[in-house]
From TrEMBL:
It is an enzyme of class 1 (oxidoreductase). It comes from the Eukaryota. GO terms for molecular function: 3-beta-hydroxysteroid 3-dehydrogenase (NADP+) activity; 5-alpha-androstane-3-beta,17-beta-diol dehydrogenase (NADP+) activity; estradiol 17-beta-dehydrogenase [NAD(P)+] activity. InterPro entries: 3KSR/17beta-HSD (IPR052834), HSD17B7/Erg27 (IPR042829), NAD(P)-bd_dom_sf (IPR036291), SDR_fam (IPR002347). This is 3-keto-steroid reductase/17-beta-hydroxysteroid dehydrogenase 7. The gene is HSD17B7. SUPFAM superfamilies: NAD(P)-binding Rossmann-fold domains. Pathway: Steroid biosynthesis; zymosterol biosynthesis; zymosterol from lanosterol: step 5/6; Steroid biosynthesis; estrogen biosynthesis. The keyword NAD applies. It is a single-pass membrane protein. It comes from Leptobrachium leishanense. It is found in: Endoplasmic reticulum membrane. Belongs to the short-chain dehydrogenases/reductases (SDR) family. ERG27 subfamily. It catalyses: zymosterone + NADPH + H(+) = zymosterol + NADP(+); 4alpha-methyl-5alpha-cholest-7-en-3beta-ol + NADP(+) = 4alpha-methyl-5alpha-cholest-7-en-3-one + NADPH + H(+); 4alpha-methyl-5alpha-cholest-8-en-3-one + NADPH + H(+) = 4alpha-methyl-5alpha-cholest-8-en-3beta-ol + NADP(+); 17beta-estradiol + NADP(+) = estrone + NADPH + H(+). Pfam families: adh_short.
Length: 329
């Protein structure tokens, strides 16, 4: 029986590189590209079929920033698949990022220079907005849309014929101080990305607590810093290319400058086929690339308490109820 692997945000960057690498690792899987834009998804499928002509690839349209679209897409997934073995929750945004050059220069001459490059801590702010669903866009796209998707396809994820895995593309930019339980959508503040990724870490821990018994397991990954469309929103592509030699130098300091989507997908690929009993719910799996360009995976304990994860889970369940009432009064 073919393993069914669904990937959100599969048409570019880390998601697309993951598709390539999964097909190279196991050409017997059925891959489902869950994308918001059908044309971009078709282009991705064409590219994947060129390198893997016998690949079995489906497409489902899902905009994780829209509840209506998530409900429609989830229905299609339920109808199409009896079971889903892997769900990569990878789609994500960082809208209108701004660099603090002052913090960058100060950081360069401080003892925190390595962690600054590894996490981007204190270097970036974003401007968020409210979606048609009345939610903060970064929160809805990076977290809540994905959460609703999981809840909607629960019957095909929790099945008797073996465990299923949820794999979240989180970030080392996830930071406790950017997140607040009383403002979990990050209405007040300019670090919505960091807050959403921290919320993702909390959610993954809670999902394990509530779903492991039913055969569903959740892990979080940091792909490292990768030059994708997300990074081209921070600085234009030609500037990144211009400072490439500096970036390779930075790679000597920190193994987290994975730079290419191929390298960034390392930990996501590593989790595919892992025995679920060997996974640690409280750990984040990082894609790393050494100065010589070798890829490997490193794990680190996350900076969170299970109690906060429980409290956040309760809040997200309450929000789900509220949203369902609005969608289906
Ligand atoms: N690049 C980096 O350094 C890092 C990235 N990450 C995370 O990796 C993930 C992938 O990003 P990356 O590959 O870098 O960037 P890309 O911008 O290349 O990929 C993001 C993907 O998400 C999709 N997407 C965005 N919004 C939605 C939506 N509302 N509904 C459905 N799909 C959507 C995009 O689709 P479309 O093409 O239609 O916009 C695209 O396919 C993100 O979660 C990001 O936060 C984490 C750490 C570092
Ligand atoms: C490399 C040089 C000389 C300058 C670039 C400085 C910053 C723009 C850059 C340094 C560390 C980067 C970084 C991210 C964005 C760009 C930086 C701040 C992220 C926050 C991007 C998104 C993520 O999820 C993180 C893992 C990245 C961490 C590092």
């Amino acid at each position: 029986m073919r393993k069914v692997v669904v990937i959100t945000g599969a048409n570019s960057g880390i998601g697309l590189a993951l598709c390539e690498r999964l097909l190279s690792k196991d050409d017997q899987i059925h891959l489902c590209l869950a994308c918001r834009n059908l044309q971009r998804a078709e282009n991705a499928r064409t590219a994947l079929m060129t390198s893997h002509p016998s690949a079995d690839i489906g497409i489902v349209q899902i905009d994780v920033g829209s509840i209506k679209s998530v409900l429609r897409g989830a229905k299609e997934l339920r109808e199409r698949y009896k079971r889903i073995d892997y769900l990569y929750l990878n789609a994500g945004i960082m809208p209108n990022p701004r660099i603090s050059f002052k913090a960058l220069i100060t950081g360069l001459f401080s003892s925190k220079v390595i962690s600054m490059f590894a996490t981007g801590e204190g270097l970036l702010t974003q401007e968020d907005k409210v979606t048609e669903d009345g939610l903060q866009e970064v929160f809805e796209t990076n977290i809540f849309g994905h959460f609703m998707l999981i809840r909607e396809i629960e019957p095909v994820l929790c099945h008797a014929d073996g465990p299923s895995q949820l794999i979240w593309t989180s970030s080392s930019n996830a930071r406790r101080s950017a997140f607040s339980l009383t403002d979990y959508q990050h209405v007040n503040g300019q670090e919505s990305y960091s807050s959403s990724k921290y919320a993702m870490d909390l959610l993954s821990v809670a999902l394990n607590k509530h779903y492991n018994q039913q055969g569903m397991f959740s892990s979080v990954v940091c792909p490292g810093f990768v030059l994708t469309n997300l990074a081209y929103g921070i600085l234009p592509q030609f500037i990144w290319m211009f400072i490439m030699p500096i970036m390779w130098l930075v790679r000597l300091l920190t193994n987290t400058f994975t730079l290419s989507p191929y390298n960034g997908a390392e930990a996501l690929l590593w989790l595919f086929g892992r025995k679920v009993e060997s996974l640690d719910s409280l750990v984040k799996y990082h894609s790393c690339t050494s100065g010589l360009g070798n890829n490997y995976v490193q794990s680190s304990k996350m900076d969170l308490e299970e109690e906060s994860s429980d409290l956040f889970y309760q809040k997200i369940l309450d929000l789900e109820k509220e949203v369902r009432k609005k969608t289906n009064p």
